[in-house]
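call fold target=Putative membrane-anchored protein
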Amino acid sequence: MTLSWAEEAVSATTSASTQDVCSSATFKPETADFNSELHARPSIYFIGPAIVEHVAFMPLDGAIEEFHDTLEVDGEISVRVERHTEFVTVTRLRKLDSDPERWPESDLTESDLARLAGLNSPRLICHVSILALGNSPDELGPVLKTFGFGDTAASSIGGGSAQVCSDFRVRPDNSSRIILFNKDLNAHRLGRMVRRIFEIETYRSMALLGLPEARRLAPLLGGYDAELVQLTNRNLSTPTQQHKRLLDEITVLSSHIISATAETRNRFGATAAYAKIVEERIALLRETHVPGFQRFGTFVERRFKPAVRTCEATALRLEHLSRATMHLLDLLQTRIQVEIEFQNATQIQAMAERAATQVKIQRAVEGFSIIAISYYLLSLLKFLYETADHAGFHIDPVIMLVAVPVVVGAVAITILRVKHALKAEN
């Protein structure tokens, strides 16, 4: 049987909605997808002693194309495969006839569980086994030693309806073990409680994937900090002619910081999201203290939150470095821009002075042009006077004397009118 309870609920909801919609209306499949999120990832409900194995895998290519759950039941064994955004989980329930005296050995390897998930050689994220037993004994310590538990954390959960115990140690088979003593949880509450514990372990492991990135970046960020301080000090004393070299070095540093931020942004964001889920699931356990033992949720939080805060601090440090580098880059660009504007102002002043000199030269040339044109016209008049005199026409020399100021005045007036006309057009 490969039909999950969530798929049955979605199928029933879809069929009921179709009966209420008229035949002319178009039913969009997306509506069913949105509604199916309300029924996604149900628990495996069971009662009585059982061993429940939960394994989370991450595909090596990082691609999960389908997001659906499948449930297979074969007698006393139930297997549920769930596909999440980044990982795939396999939960296998095997019922037991009675409470065992020793920890039941698994009859499947991690490779077998990966094949159930449809993955080939994926990355193992976590492997957790929960042994669900009857009511908790009066003396918890000897029972835990029987099952090979060391320094154990234990809590009453569900308002005292059950008791959870774990030493959080990874065995040679890469699995960690948890014992759940059931006092009065029914099948539905027991299944949900087991699911919450598995989610705490799975999301805790997924959140901690950001810790190696934070540790890898720690020495790099120290170097970036030192380089930023050095460049900032150099920005105060660098001469104008060396601004380009300093700008190149700041740009390279900014590129490294942006690259590191881009590489880790998604991972640190996922760490924060998974950590939030872990906190919510621990709160849902409704823990109470078991005398002589540290609480289960307290143990997880005290050792889990520092790693999450390390990732948060690294992400924040990257952001601050990026802002500081960009600010330094802006300051240097401002200095360069001010220098350029000063040079432009100097050039504009020099151009203005040259323009003023050209105006003075132009005025001098205008005076010379009046004299030159007047001399040319008077030369023509003299040529006409001499020609007329040789031809027998005698002209009074007084006329030539009067012509000199008349010609000069006419040329000056003409040149001034042309100059005013050009100014009016401009």
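return ok
Confidence is low (pLDDT under 50) at residues 1-27. The beta strands are 50-58, 69-74, 77-83, 88-95, 123-133, 153-157, 162-166, 176-182, 288-289.
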